[in-house]
Write a structure and sequence with these properties.
Layout lengths: L2 E3 L3 H5 L3 H4 L2 H13 L3 H6 L3 E5 L9 E3 L10 E4 L16 H7 L2 H17 L4 E2 L23 H15 L4 E2 L2 E3 L12 E3 L2 H8 L1 H9 L4 E4 L3 E2 L2 E2 L4 H11 L5 E3 L10 H6 L13 H9 L5 H17 L16 H14 L1 E5 L10 E5 L24 H6 L5 E5 L5 H4 L4 E7 L34 H11 L5 E6 L15 E4 L7 H9 L29 E3 L5 H7 L17 E10 L3 E10 L5 E12 L9 E10 L4 E9 L5 E3 L3 E3 L4 E7 L7 E8 L2 E4 L2
Helix pairs in contact: 3-13, 5-14, 6-7, 6-14, 7-9, 14-18
The structure holds alpha-D-glucopyranose (GLC).
The site of alpha-D-glucopyranose has 6 residues, from loops.
Length: 693
Amino acid sequence: MSTIKAFDLKEIRRGNKALESDKTLVDSLAKASLETMTLEEKIEQLHGSKGSGDMGTEKGLYWSGENSAKGIPPFKMVDGPRGLRAGFATAFPVPMARGASFDPTLERRVGMAIGEEVAAAGGNVLLAPTVNLLRHPGWGRAQETYSEDPFHMGLMGLAFVCGAQNFVLASPKHFALNNLETTRFEVNSEIDERALHEVYLPHFRRSIVDGCAASIMSAYNKVNGTYCGENSNLLEKILRDDWGFEGFVESDWLLGTRSTAPAINAGMDIEMPAAYWFKQEKIEDSVAKGEILTETIDRNVLRVLRQKFAFGLTSQISVSKERIECEEHLSLAQEVAEKSFVLLKNEGVLPLKAIQNIALIGKLAATENLGDRGSSMVRSTHVSTPFDGIENWNGASFTFFEDAPESDVLEGFDVAVVVAGYTYQDEGEYIPTLNKESSGNDLARGGDRSSLRLPIDQEELIGAVSSRAKKTVVLLETGSSVNVYPWIDSIEALLVIWYPGCEGGKAIARTLYGEVNPSGRLPALFPKSDEQFGEWDTNAKEVKHGLFHGYRYLDCKHEKALFPFGFGLSYTEFKVKSVFVNRKKRHFSVIVAVSNQGKVDGDCVVQLYVSCLNSKVDRAKKELKGFGRLSLPANEEMNLEFEVPDSDLCFYDREAGWVLESCLYRFSIGFSSEDLPFSQTWRFEDTSWTKEA
Ligand code: GLC
């Protein structure tokens, strides 16, 4: 029986320019360039320039640091995590949907495609991925990140960075603890060193250390009372001393920089989008007063110049504009959508049969619903809505209703398919200067969700249909977890389709009619009630971050989710047949045999969690330490191999750093955080490992 690796770092890192550049040469070129510069020219490298480059129908590239006299090209920065946010571009499914694919190899391809479209538009820095942990599903920008779990987030973000850096510089964001939206400019995130390193930073570290991200964007908020943009613990000690980061730090826009000398000394390299605190006269004044040493200016400028040389920006590769919204990228967007849908309930109603007469219900069915209208917004020339997809699926017979039809009408249909959910007016990046009702293609106000339930009109739509129809299927459009508890029992099937991107409608039709077997798994649990997540104040100015949130928090309270992290159904049946946990030199090799016991081909996601038993420190009951996606034809069996390094089993001690504690470690394997039929326990004592009986 064949064995495949759950995660192949070499494959994920393939083509990443940051890993291919000659560091010695880059360093000498950067130093030679620095030596020719005046202080004024050095300062020009440290801030954005007003306005933006010439960008076709829509300005969207933010420039910084052009010095054509010295042959130094500008950075041309542009968002974002869902696609190129300038002009028209391929709108991929939102990152939360891609998180549901649990497929880093696929995410690397998405990073490559978006990076290529940014390069085709003349950009060279992609302001993505967003890898802020989903501490609470109500976060306004939940859709823009991948997960509630740091391990899962780490691999997905790493894959995106490595893919994008085949073409442009990536910039994971927002560093760090940007987990609340409405008060993001002022909120102070309190956290102790252990929770910071163990829970809120590992996914950033993965992109920096394994992915060699060329830059990182600091966050607006404070951490332990100091703005991230001038937080030397984050920007110097952790990023530089602990992780060896060689790229540059750019601020978040406008309020991301709060000072001149404190920010520059703490390691903020580029103020974006333009100079305010980093204006020539302000920096020169600070240098004259001895508040900033010229060595510090040189240090920061070198970080900027190194990346320009490392990525060969002096000889910008030309990518044809034809690559924007090219067929290859559109079909990738469809593939991603198809692998992201999560089937949460199916009482014998899906897949649909072509001969069935369907009622397609809800305004959202015929609405372009691509997600947030903040900085992650992407406009596509054409968007396939659920209506378009079903209408164009050969053989589908359906009638569309904007609202719930009367009972006597619905009786004439075999199945009612309701498209319900959120739009950009319910969640998204909080831009206080804008109104909530912005229409057309404008930016919108966004903000956190104070309730996890659907808007009342959506719940009423579902209620009206499910009380009249023979069978009801709900297609749920969302960027995060939803409290579906009030209506889940009244419907026969629930498919989470997220904000499914510009090709979503085609993916939806193929999944509804069984051409595609749903294989997405929840990247964030769906609760039985809002209260399961504990306190959630969207106006908070002080937030305490700890070790426990999401499934870790429910485990602490010995509670079950309505639908747990990692959960998802299929049109077929998978089974774990055997598990072998073997000790290698400095890691464990875990080989899991999985079989497809059903009649149709499908993909499953095998998950590996580790629990530390009789630990002397407070620990989560279990933590995800491995996942792998497996494509299995009907009646076939395959092995999946996980590698779990000892470093992934350590806890962080403020004095001692990372510690591999002498205690029991239970490896549990299954198909969700609450479905782990196989486990094996090992004991670590002093320096040796032994398997427990
Ligand atoms: C915004 C966002 C950030 C984005 C930047 C540029 O404020 O927080 O994610 O990259 O501005 O658009």
